[in-house]
Amino acid sequence: MIDRSLNYGRNQIGKFLQRIPEVRHALDLGAGRGDDLALVRAAFPEANCHAVECQQEAALALARSGIDAAVLDIERERLPWADNSMDLVIINQVLEHVKDHFWLLHETSRVLGPGGYLVIGVPNLASLHNRILLFFGRQPTPIANTSAHIRGWTTGDLGRFLAIGGCYKKVGRRGANFYPFPALLARPLAWLFPGLAWGSMTLWQKRPDAEYGDAFVRFPAEHRLETNFYTGGEV
After folding, report:
1. What interhelical angle do 215-222 and 101-111 show, nearest 10?
2. How far is residue 100's CA from residue 230's CA, in Å, rounded to a whole number?
3. Do 161 and 180 touch, CB atoms closer than 8 A?
């Protein structure tokens, strides 16, 4: 039986945290119940944890646990933290739900300090089970039109997207879950073949010598993308 809890890649996030020397301020965009921030607290007990959550009830629960939680629209609003104020930003199982990803990564890059780390987890459009589905003319599950997902990602395409910012380097990659296998097999298979795993978990560093300006929000106009993207200003 498939263990879908592995889709969130929390074991992989824990491994990534072991590679980060220090975290004083961590931000989780789309924090849910705070499970990813719990990993941060375990690894860095002195870290100040911040979160964005669109659900008021979830944000209140996060606040009760001592997390600085904000309720806002990550596709339209500025994050309420200063430039270069975060050492770690987590965006786990969020980008597949987002249309205005240029704005989201603009704000992420603004608040993440030089040398800081970015953890991104997304369903892998190039997973083994999605390749099989497409071979037989079936819709890949990450972009099923009956789901809440509106965007599909592969690790390579995520890298090309982050390259727009001109300030990130990839320092880690791991796979999360492996359909259609049970957990006993899914864990080692995801480790051996991350490019075929259900989820793509990646760790990026904002290079200490690279400054971010506004490249993400300039991109749609500069490349004349034929759709409307929010890039700041009035909604």
Report:
1. 150
2. 6
3. no
Q: Which CATH superfamily is domain 4-222 in?
A: Vaccinia Virus protein VP39 (3.40.50.150)
Domain boundaries along the sequence of the chain: 4-222
**Alpha-carbon span 141 to 124, nearest angstrom:** 10
Question: Do 120 and 108 meet the contact criterion of CB atoms below 8 Å apart?
Answer: no
Q: How much is the pLDDT for 188?
A: 97
Structural tokens at position 161: 């997207």
Would the CA dihedral through 189, 203, 8, 217 be positive or negative? Answer: negative
pLDDT value of residue 152: 97
Which pLDDT value is given to residue 1? 85
pTM: 0.95
Residues across the chain: 235
